[in-house]
Amino acid sequence: MQSNRRGKSGSTLVIISAFLFAFAVWTAYSVTSGQTIRIRNTGAQAQLRGSTQQGLDAWQQMYSVLTHPRCINCHTATNYPQQGDDRHRHVANVIRGPVGKGVPAFTCHACHQEANADSTGVPGGHDWHLAPLPMRWQDTNDRPLPSSAVCRAVTDRRRNENMDGAALLKHHQEALLVLWAWNPGRRPDGTMRTVPPLTHDEFVAATRRWVDAGMPCPR
């Protein structure tokens, strides 16, 4: 009888030991798995934050171009375009007209031809016109809008001619009036017009980084 009891006790001890070992292994695995998941989640969140910040940095570079006179002079909130680095009202009382190309008796194309006229100082480019009012980048007092407001306008497909990120990148790469900003010709006094603070290649690269980051906008 004593031998049987000792055998049963030994068997019970083995079972308990095995159970405790299995429980310890399972606990260690669960803790390790949880830590791994948390590490992965933390890493993914950090990567997302980094990507968003890179996108915001790229946007600020873009904003420095979009609010330069070569761009913003035709992205007005008023019924007229602007001229010069001081962004004064266009001479000769030029007005926007119904589609941003002047009025029938005085269209943009009457003076602005397909290319710059350096002999007279009149700038030119294909299909010269004002940006539509929904794409204004300044207020009615001619002050540039904040970075966040311009970003919202650029990314709103109801306002930007339904352009997604890929289309915006292509627009910045190829649109002739965008390209004109880096080849604006001479002023009437013969001096060269200023160009945006980035090169065109830098502007396109910044746009690509911004698009790749999900087109984030500052708050």
Describe this structure in words.
- This protein has 219 residues and is mostly helical.
- The chain has one domain (59-212).
- The chain contains six helices and four strands; from the N terminus they run ααββββαααα.
- The protein has a two-stranded antiparallel ribbon. The protein has a two-stranded antiparallel sheet with strand order 3-4.
- The model has no long low-confidence stretch (mean pLDDT 88).
Q: How many discrete domains?
A: 1
Shape: globular
Number of helices: 6
N-C termini distance: 82 Å
Number of strands: 4
The largest sheet is: 2 strands, antiparallel
Give the radius of gyration. Answer: 32 Å
Helix-strand string: HHEEEEHHHH
Give the tags.
4% strand, 48% helix, mainly alpha, single chain, 219 residues, two-stranded antiparallel ribbon
Summarize the structure.
The chain is mostly helical and 219 residues long.
Note the topology.
Layout: H1 2-66, H2 69-72, E1 82-83, E2 88-89, E3 102-103, E4 106-107, H3 147-155, H4 165-174, H5 176-180, H6 200-212
Antiparallel strand pairs: 1-2, 3-4
